[in-house]
């Protein structure tokens, strides 16, 4: 009877250890999964992004003349970001006009550090990422007047 109790405790302990190891393994690989999802080219979903700007910015935007709104759309509407597997980063501002740098996803699985070729760094936050859509928080409290704080992006290529 005593022997059966030891077998029970041993099985329970082995089960707990296996669950702990598999949980730690899954947590350790979640960063790689987000990094894998990030690889590719993403296009700004302008309509979704402009539709969800903060209320203060929205109030200001609503007072603009249509000509100015069209210029903003032309400036932002074609933006694309490419995250290369080798850590390279390309922000296409407009067709034929781009800036380059590198990217790094930090251990917290959501903090994205962009380092431009000129040395400037920007920390952004991945709020949500899937196979075909991403919500990227551009952060930057220093840019209080920024129209877009969050970019809704659609994956256009791997």
Structural summary, described in words:
There is one protein chain. The chain is α+β, with helices and mostly antiparallel strands and 158 residues long. The protein has one domain (2-157): Lipocalin (Beta Barrel), CATH 2.40.128. It is 39% helix and 34% strand. The chain contains four helices and eight strands. The chain has helices at 2-38, 46-51, 55-62, 66-76, and strands at residues 40-44, 80-83, 88-94, 97-105, 111-116, 121-129, 133-137, 150-157. The protein has an eight-stranded antiparallel barrel. Strand 4 and strand 5 form a beta hairpin. It is globular and about 85 Å long. The protein starts with a helix and ends with a strand.
What order do the strands of the largest sheet run in, or round the barrel if closed? Answer: 1-2-3-4-5-6-7-8
The secondary-structure element order is: HEHHHEEEEEEE
Low-confidence stretches: 11-15, 17-31
Morphology: globular
CATH topology: Lipocalin
Largest sheet: 8 strands, antiparallel, barrel
- Helix content range: 25-40%
Q: Strand fraction band? A: 25-35%
Our count of domains comes out at: 1
Calculate the terminal CA-CA distance, rounded to whole Å.
Answer: 60 Å
Write down how many β-strands occur, each being a DSSP E stretch of 2 or more residues.
8
| Average pLDDT level | 82
Number of helices, where a helix is a run of at least 4 consecutive DSSP H or I residues: 4
Brief sketch in words of this structure:
Helices cover 39% and strands 34% of the residues. It contains 4 helices and 8 strands, in the order αβαααβββββββ.
């Amino acid at each position: 009877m005593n022997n059966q109790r030891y077998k029970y405790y041993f099985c329970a302990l082995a089960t707990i250890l296996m669950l702990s190891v598999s949980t730690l393994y899954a947590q350790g690989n979640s960063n790689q999964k987000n990094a894998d999802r990030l690889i590719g080219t993403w296009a700004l979903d302008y309509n979704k992004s402009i539709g969800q700007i903060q209320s203060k910015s929205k109030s200001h935007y609503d007072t603009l003349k249509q000509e100015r709104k069209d210029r903003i759309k032309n400036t932002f509407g074609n933006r694309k970001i490419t995250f290369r597997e080798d850590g390279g980063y390309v922000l296409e501002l407009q067709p034929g006009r781009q800036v380059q740098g590198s990217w790094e996803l930090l251990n917290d699985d959501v903090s994205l550090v962009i380092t431009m070729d000129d040395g400037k760094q920007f920390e952004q936050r991945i709020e949500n990422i899937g196979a075909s859509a991403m919500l990227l928080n551009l952060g930057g409290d220093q840019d209080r007047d920024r129209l877009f704080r969050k970019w809704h992006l659609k994956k256009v290529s791997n």
